[in-house]
């Protein structure tokens, strides 16, 4: 029991001596760290506003602002540790050794970060673009170092690791998605009139892209009809709504113009015995 009391007293004396000796250094280090974090936040906000004023992409702007903030905090932490009398050289060596092991253990995660950095710098797409990648289509809402977040018309959020984006074939249609439709009309119908009727119907549809004009023309000649191709761009966030609305307007306009929408037909001839071929 006496030994335990002596050990406790020794520990108590050691703690007291440490705080007496280094109290001002610790207080100074804490003050330096708090001031550094405050300054880092201010500089990060200034950098972000400056990038936005220069019309830089929002993802790239946030990346530059975050990098500057982290750099300042790291520098201030090194200064604060030096104030306490702690050398950062052993920490740097230990971090280097740990980084090697962590890098081997987290190759997938690091590849995502590397791909994210590539996306931020090269900018094959930005927030607000519609991308088609790995069989997934959606509107880009956020771009992070590790992943990219998409959202579709049903407000379903789709998270794609960045390593599955870089190096793949990427389709970027900005904020719109292409709709490709076709309608078959009878061979004895007035094709020019049908095309004009469809164009007039599409002009009445709200939501179609104004920057990308729609196209209407003869697409193919099938057995029972002439196929009229229709191509138009609709906003990705309400693609299906706009597409269904356009189809309804085209259908009503063709019926009103008395243009026959053809359907597959087959002619069957029944031969009697006298007409049968031997």
Q: Look at the structure and give the CATH class of the largest domain.
A: Mainly Alpha
Cα(first) to Cα(last) distance is: 122 Å
User: What order do the helices and strands follow?
Assistant: HHHHEEEEEEHEEH
Number of helices: 6
Radius of gyration: 34 Å
CATH architecture of the largest domain: Orthogonal Bundle
SSE order and pairing:
Blueprint: H1 2-53, H2 58-84, H3 89-105, H4 107-122, E1 130-133, E2 136-143, E3 147-151, E4 157-161, E5 171-172, E6 176-185, H5 191-203, E7 215-221, E8 226-235, H6 239-256
Antiparallel strand pairs: 1-2, 1-5, 2-3, 3-4, 6-8, 7-8
Would you give an account of this structure?
This protein has 278 residues and is an alpha+beta fold. The protein has three domains: 2-105, Helix Hairpins, CATH 1.10.287.1260; 125-172, SH3 type barrels; 176-256, Alpha-Beta Plaits, CATH 3.30.70.100. The protein is built from six helices and eight strands, in the order ααααββββββαββα. The protein has helices spanning 2-53, 58-84, 89-105, 107-122, 191-203, 239-256, and strands at residues 130-133, 136-143, 147-151, 157-161, 171-172, 176-185, 215-221, 226-235. Helix 1 runs antiparallel to helix 2 and helix 5 crosses helix 6. It is elongated, with a radius of gyration of 34 Å.
């Amino acid at each position: 029991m006496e030994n335990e009391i002596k050990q406790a007293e020794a520990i108590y004396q050691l703690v007291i001596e440490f705080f007496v000796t280094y109290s001002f250094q610790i207080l100074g280090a804490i003050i330096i760290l708090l001031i550094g974090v405050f300054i880092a936040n201010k500089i990060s906000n200034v950098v972000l506003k400056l990038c936005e004023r220069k019309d830089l992409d929002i993802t790239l702007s946030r990346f530059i602002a975050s990098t500057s903030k982290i750099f300042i905090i790291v520098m201030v932490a090194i200064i604060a540790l030096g104030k306490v009398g702690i050398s950062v050289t052993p920490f740097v060596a230990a971090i280097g050794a740990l980084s090697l092991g962590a890098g081997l253990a987290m190759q997938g995660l690091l590849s995502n970060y590397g791909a994210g950095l590539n996306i931020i710098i090269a900018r094959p797409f930005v927030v607000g673009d519609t991308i088609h990648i790995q069989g997934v289509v959606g509107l880009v809402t956020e771009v992070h170092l590790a992943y990219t977040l998409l959202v579709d018309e049903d407000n379903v959020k789709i998270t794609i690791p960045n390593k599955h984006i870089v190096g793949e074939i990427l389709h970027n249609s900005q904020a719109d998605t292409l709709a490709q439709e076709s309608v078959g009309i009878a061979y004895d119908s007035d094709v020019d009139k049908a095309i004009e009727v469809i164009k007039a119907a599409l002009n009445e549809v709200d939501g179609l892209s104004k920057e990308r004009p729609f196209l209407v023309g003869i697409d193919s000649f099938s057995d029972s009809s002439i196929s009229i191709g229709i191509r138009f761009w609709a906003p990705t966030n309400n693609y299906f709504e706009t597409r269904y609305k356009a189809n309804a307007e085209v259908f009503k306009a063709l019926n009103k113009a008395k243009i026959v929408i053809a359907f597959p037909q087959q002619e069957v001839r029944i031969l009697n015995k006298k007409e049968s071929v031997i």
